[in-house]
């Protein structure tokens, strides 16, 4: 089992468009919208069903969890929850973590996710000293794959029929970015 990093300081990150702050109980309404939205569930491969009480509890307690940092994406000087970005499975020994982004349906395509990913990668490589950040994206979600490629993630492989898509299956595209690629210092082809 990987050594999970205890991230005591879960910082707020500021960019030009977005402000990322630790996820909190007040974000439960927005998260509920995402986890009950059929399209969000489909393109993220979410098959679990959540109760409102579970979401309320998760938002109230996740900031204290080890091995992860969950941020609410906010913008425009408002503290309103637009989505979430998560750096989880933080493994100090291997210098790696996983990234996940999910925006409320009305907030997609506005550039918030792109900037949020850049801020989190900056923290991952500069603040936490990680070497690699990975993720997987469903093949039925080319928009998300293009977003991740646009910020420097590279396709590393494919897991065939890894997620349910209704009565069908979807491949998962495995992607990753290394510290030197984030800094623009490598052309690993």
Automatic annotation (TrEMBL):
Coiled coil: none annotated. Residues 18-180 form the N-acetyltransferase domain. SUPFAM superfamilies: Acyl-CoA N-acyltransferases (Nat) (SSF55729). The keyword Transferase applies. InterPro entries: Acyl_CoA_acyltransferase (IPR016181), GNAT_dom (IPR000182), N-acetyltransferase (IPR051531). Keywords: Transferase. Transmembrane segments: none annotated. GO terms for molecular function: acyltransferase activity, transferring groups other than amino-acyl groups. PANTHER family: GNAT FAMILY, PUTATIVE (AFU_ORTHOLOGUE AFUA_3G00765)-RELATED-RELATED. This is Aminoglycoside N(6')-acetyltransferase.
